[in-house]
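Hi, here's the filled form for the chain we discussed.

Project: internal
Contact: R.S.
Residues: 126
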Amino acid sequence: MRSRSVALLLSSALLAGVAVSQTAAAQSYCPGCEAAIVGAAVGVGAAVGVGIYLIHRGRTSLTGCVQQTDSGFSLTAKDGNNYVLVNAPSEVKARKRLLLRGHKIRTSGHSFRVDRVSRDYGACSP
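And the returned structure, exactly as it came back:
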């Protein structure tokens, strides 16, 4: 999550730098265009921020111990809830404590669609 925040901060700083450099260049051939260039840069930055939010808003992480079931895998989370794991990648193994990234699925029970394994904490403690 930190790397995404850093990337967002750096891209915002880059856009601000581009706006400043374009503003200086615009003075030589387009008097009065400063506001339009700054406004366009702010608009592009806002659009990038909204796009990143919309892409990542539904993702969540889930940490817990994985068990083998008749239908695949389930995970017992730290809060005690059991989640059926959907589309679990090959890295998911029974009796492992994992940090998973994905999406909670709203069904009659608790289900979690796994996008990837973020961290393997090793064997589950009894």
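Let me know if anything looks off before we file it.
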